[in-house]
Request: fold
Amino acid sequence: MSLLYHQSFGEGTNVVFLHGFLGSGDNFWPHAQALKDQYRCWLFDLPGHGRSPHLPHYNMSTLAEG
Reply:
């Protein structure tokens, strides 16, 4: 199992940001910076995007494991 690249900012209730197609967690960096005084913001790069590892095959099984 590979680990997804992520960043986190702030403290408090967790808020998770997930990007869309062709995106990365960096897309939400300005939002996380604005919210970090009240929330713990998590920005993930989903498999095959940004700094997360690429998978050899993309199907529901490999995406669930990644």
